[in-house]
C-alpha cells in the first residue's frame, strides 16, 4: 500500500491561487462574481473545518443516537436547500416536508440497507461509515428531488389551461397531470444518469480519487465507487418518484381539480 500523503496549510494556500485567478477574470470581464466567489470559498473552508472538528468528536463517541441526530440535521439542511431552489413553492408545511421527507426516507432506507448487508461495519451504525455514506447519497438525492419538484410546479403553472381542459374532458387528476409528471421525473433522474454515463471516461469521482490518493488499491476503490453510484441511483429514484407524486397529489384534490392556489403566492 502506498504511503499516506499529508497536506499542509501551504498546499491549501497554493490551491487557493486558482480561486484568486477566477476572481481576477470576473473583475476583468465585469462579471460581478468576484465578491460572491470569495465569500463562498471562505464559507466552504469554514464549514468544512467545523465539520472536521465535529466529526472527530462524533467518531470518538460512536453513539447511534448522536449519529441519528447528525443525520437528521443533515436532512433538515438539505430540505431547506430543496425548498429554496424551487421557483414556485408549495405553501405551508407541505412546501418543506414533501422534499425533506421523501429525501429522508429514500436516503435513510438505502443507507441502512447498504450498512447492514453490503459494507457491514462493526457496529453497523459506526459513524465513520454511516455519515459519509449518508451524506453522499443525500446530496445527490437532493439535487434530483429539487429539479423534479421545480419542473413539476413551474410546468403545471405554465400549462394550467391544458391540464384543466383535460379535466373538463373527463380525465382524472393524475391522467391530466401525467405528461407533466413525466417531465418532472425525467428532470430529476437526469443528473445521476449523466454522472453514471460519464464516470470513468470523462471524470474520476471524488471518492475514488481520494481513496487512491490515500493508498487504497485502485481495483478496491472502483468497487466502492460502483456501489456508491448504485446506491445513489436507487435513492435518487425513490426520492424523485415519491416527492413528485406527493406534490402532484397536493396540487389536486379528490374532485379532480387542479389546485394551484396551494402554491405560495409570488412576491
Please describe what this structure looks like:
This protein has 10 helices and no strands. It has 267 residues and is mainly α. The chain folds into 2 domains: 1-61, no CATH class; 64-262, no CATH class. Helix 4 (64-85) crosses helix 5 and helix 8 (173-198) runs antiparallel to helix 10. The radius of gyration is 22 Å and the shape is globular. The mean pLDDT is 90.
Domain module count: 2
* Element-by-element helix/strand order: HHHHHHHHHH
Give me the number of helical elements.
10
Largest sheet: none
Mean pLDDT: 90
Extended strand count:
0
Structural class: mainly alpha
Helix content: over 70%
- How large, in whole angstroms, is the Cα Rg? 22 Å
Distance between the termini: 58 Å
* Share in β-strands: under 5%
- Flag low-confidence runs: none
Molecular shape? globular
Would you spell out the secondary-structure blueprint of this structure?
Blueprint: H1 9-15, H2 17-28, H3 34-61, H4 64-85, H5 93-119, H6 127-158, H7 160-168, H8 173-198, H9 206-213, H10 218-250
Key features?
10 helices; mainly alpha; 76% helix
What does this entry show, briefly?
The chain is mainly α and about 270 residues long. The chain is about 75% helix and about 0% strand. The chain has helices spanning about 10-15, 15-30, 35-60, 65-85, 95-120, 125-160, 160-170, 175-200, 205-215, 220-250.
